[in-house]
Amino acid sequence: MPDGIIYLVGAGPGDPGLITLRGIECLRQAQVVVYDYLANEQLLNHAPPDAERIYAGKIGGRHNQEQEEINRLLVEKGQQGKIVVRLKGGDPFVFGRGGEECEALALAGLPFEVVPGVTAAVGAAAYAGIPLTHRDFTASVAFVTGQEGKDKSESGIDWDRLSLGDGTVVFYMGITSLRRNMQRMSKHGRDPHTPVALVRWATTSRQQVLTGTLADIADKAEKSGFKPPAITIVGDVVNLRDKLRWFDSRPLSGRRIVVTRAADQAGEFSSMLTSSGATIFECATIKLVEPESWDELDAAIGTLAGFDWLVLTSGNAVRFFFQRLNALGFDARALGRCKVCAVGPKTAEAIREHGIRPDLVPADYKAEGVVSEFARLDMIGKKVLFPRADRAREVIPSNLEQMGAQVTAPVAYRNILPDRLCPEALLALEKRCIDCITFTSSSTVLNLAELLGADLLADMLKGVAVASIGPITSRTCRDLGLKVDIEPQEYTLSSLNAAIQQYFSLPAH
Ligand code: SAH
Questions:
Q1: Same fold? 5-118, 122-245
Q2: For a 10 Å CB count at each end of the chain, is N or C smaller?
Q3: 122-245: what fold?
């Protein structure tokens, strides 16, 4: 049997974007992933779905016996010829016991590679706005374990050297022994007024920063119940945070937002809000499925070149229409001279991905906008194909028919209720720790009301800012007894994001 290979991969400090490209390449090939408590679980999505996933983490330090078991597991999987990724928080060779794991592999004669990662000190410093070195303050930095000395009577750390001078000192695993370590540094010569920052869950939406001095940080941490995992940064550079903080001063930092959309659609909007600093709870309220019968759409596709206009009013309509076109063995050429209308810029972009430049995009991105554009054209006797959702509004077909057009409106997909709502989002709503909920179509509101009951929904959303993409969705909200706090001028996701930011920038919110 061929020997496997073991990749020790640094997962970075928490933000899943902080893993290296090489790390992702390794994960993509993995047959087995052995991962730690501090490695972000989202990274496991890079591994093939059938890869074996083994959790080897433990909160707050690990006993030697457990470490030996992990070493044995890595050797065993390697000997079975497997491609193994050992995914470790931060960097594998910084307080990660990666050295011991490699020694075990070397002893067993197994090939391994080490992929570095952004270590917690570096990640925390960046996301807290604290440069670890700075020409005006210090020219050195030391990474030190805060737990050292627990089972050794004599400290192996040279506290004199660490404390004298102005070098930045970063403690890992230093929260439980914070008081003792701070006292040691003052005792060995560091000015008790030296600024200190504690950074918990650095680089994630849970990041918390507490600042103080060598003299008072332990009291402050105790008072506020500050818990691990956190790193401690000691040095004058900590003062720079006032000027350089960015991560926790973004427009939506600290805001918790529920995003309701179809499961496969939420990603783009969520990442817009996340990059403005918000913590997102994705709560799919819509499941998109095929129509009960394809007959009507298939018949239309069969005579596509005979239509004058194809009108597409959402990214979903584009997706389902072209999927069906392709499934029937056609491509965009089947459109012949048929012109294409997109409801707005996003739909237009989705259409362009199929090699087609939309002929018409109304200035007002909604059904009424489409209607008023067509009102300027001669539509008498024109054949219009309008593939739609099963519960779509009748605005387009009825108005175009009034203009004399012949409209075919087959169902291209159905919006159905999901089997259940996301438990994390529900729990957060129940605990009343949500700041805002977003609705990007009437179906998202209607479905949520149907799943929860309108009364419970109205009750759960008391004190939560309701953000609606446009007037139609807002009306649905109001019909259900909800008050709409945020509605952008333009019905796009980026405008909704901007309107949410604007709302939360007001002092009253
Ligand atoms: N190999 C890891 C360190 C493992 S030791 C690395 O390179 O980062 C575990 C300690 O790392 C924790 O006790 C804590 O001090 C620190 N740590 C890891 N991830 C952290 C995070 N996201 N925020 C703050 N500290 C973190």
A1: no
A2: N
A3: 3.30.950
